[in-house]
Design goal:
mainly alpha; globular; Fucose 4-O-acetylase; acyltransferase activity, transferring groups other than amino-acyl groups; Acyl_transf_3_dom; membrane; transmembrane
């Protein structure tokens, strides 16, 4: 692994490395599925044979894949800023979303211990980023630990939707794998031959087809509940969680196999996926009064087409660069203000680190 890193660093010496558009394109596709899934969810789709099919497809992998990609790009540098950025967005989104829902006549059903709706991802991201230095320092130990926690975390009766604990545990392995092996997996997936890609695609779709035909409880895909909510034994819970994770892994690999490398509109949307994620909730909740009873007026295929068109439009509009710039300026400004009182401590720590680094060459060779 050290040799690989050395080769990579010398390879680009004096040359600015180009951006990997495969990651951008994958994020662009995934953020679209997030918007589409949330729009479809307002129509009560899980009891409908037509609408439940795309819901199973989307929810089987879109967040695990997003977490995997977040691991690929995760860094341990400037850790306080990275963690605080997501917490700032979380504590900004929550009151604004509650107020927005009240304005449009919806019940926010808020709780101070439970991140509301899609905001769980912001809190979980902060938690996963904290683990990055440990992943880098103890890669194998953390990998095994994350898999065990992800599979067996549902045993704990007290950890559920509160503080996004269940999802943080269940999706953590995808983050760790993305951090440790994401780039290798991305390169491997892109190098496969057509027949190999078709084989993995069939395996992925076959797994999701099983979820759909067997009417597996869709709450397993959410990852937000412990085993007690499903009334299953520990072996059953672990087994079902493993099957769902395998389905998510296969679907993620399928995405990476076919994602392509071209820098186009999809890649641009992926580069601005944070703004789309944060803002789309307000759009979806604003449309909820219109979508709530739409099944009483229109048929399922037409409902899907309408949600598809709305998702395409919302994703395109919200990926407008000024939204992303404004969001990042706001979060970075607030983060900087929050960290300002600790600047003297951090500068001393940085100075100590520089001294230690400077003395390293004089230390005995191990």
């Amino acid at each position: 692994m050290k040799t690989f890193c050395f080769v990579q660093s010398t390879r680009y010496r004096g040359v600015v490395p180009t951006r990997d558009h495969r990651l951008d394109r994958a994020k662009g596709i995934l953020i679209f599925t997030v918007v589409l899934g949330h729009l479809l969810a307002r129509t009560g789709p899980w009891d409908d044979e037509v609408l439940s099919a795309p819901m199973y497809l989307i929810y089987s992998f879109h967040m695990p894949a997003f977490v995997f990609l977040a691991g690929v790009t995760a860094k341990s540098t400037r850790l306080p800023e990275r963690v605080l950025t997501f917490l700032v967005l979380l504590f900004t989104v929550l009151p604004l979303l509650w107020g927005w829902m009240w304005l449009v006549g919806l019940d926010p059903d808020y709780s101070f211990l439970t991140p509301f709706w899609y905001s769980w991802f912001l809190l979980s991201m902060a938690c996963w980023i904290i683990t990055v230095p440990f992943i880098e320092r103890f890669p194998r130990t953390i990998l095994v630990t994350s898999v065990v926690v992800g599979l067996f975390g549902g045993i704990l009766p007290l950890l559920d939707t509160e503080l996004s604990a269940s999802r943080s545990m269940i999706f953590w392995p995808f983050f760790v794998v993305g951090k440790l092996y994401g780039k290798q997996i991305l390169n491997w997936a892109g190098s496969l031959r057509i027949w190999q890609k078709l084989f993995f695609t069939a395996a992925a779709l076959g797994t999701i087809g099983y979820f759909y035909l067997d009417e597996v409880d869709h709450h397993w895909l959410y990852g937000s509940l412990n085993f007690a909510h499903f009334g299953v034994s520990i072996p059953e819970g672990v087994g079902l969680r493993l099957i769902v994770d395998i389905g998510a892994l296969l679907m993620t690999l399928m995405l990476l196999m076919w994602v392509g490398e071209k820098d186009n509109l999809i890649a641009k949307i992926g580069r601005h996926s944070l703004a789309v994620y944060v803002i789309h909730g307000f759009v979806v909740r604003g449309l909820e009064p219109l979508l709530d009873d739409i099944d009483e007026v229109l048929g399922s295929p037409l409902i899907f087409v309408i949600c598809l068109a709305l998702a395409l439009l919302a994703t395109y509009v919200l990926s407008w660069a000024p939204f992303e710039r404004a969001l990042r300026w706001y979060s970075s400004t607030v983060t900087r203000l929050l960290l300002a009182p600790f600047a003297p401590l951090r500068s001393k720590s940085g100075g100590h680190a520089e001294t230690t680094t400077a003395q390293k060459p004089d230390s005995p060779t191990r």
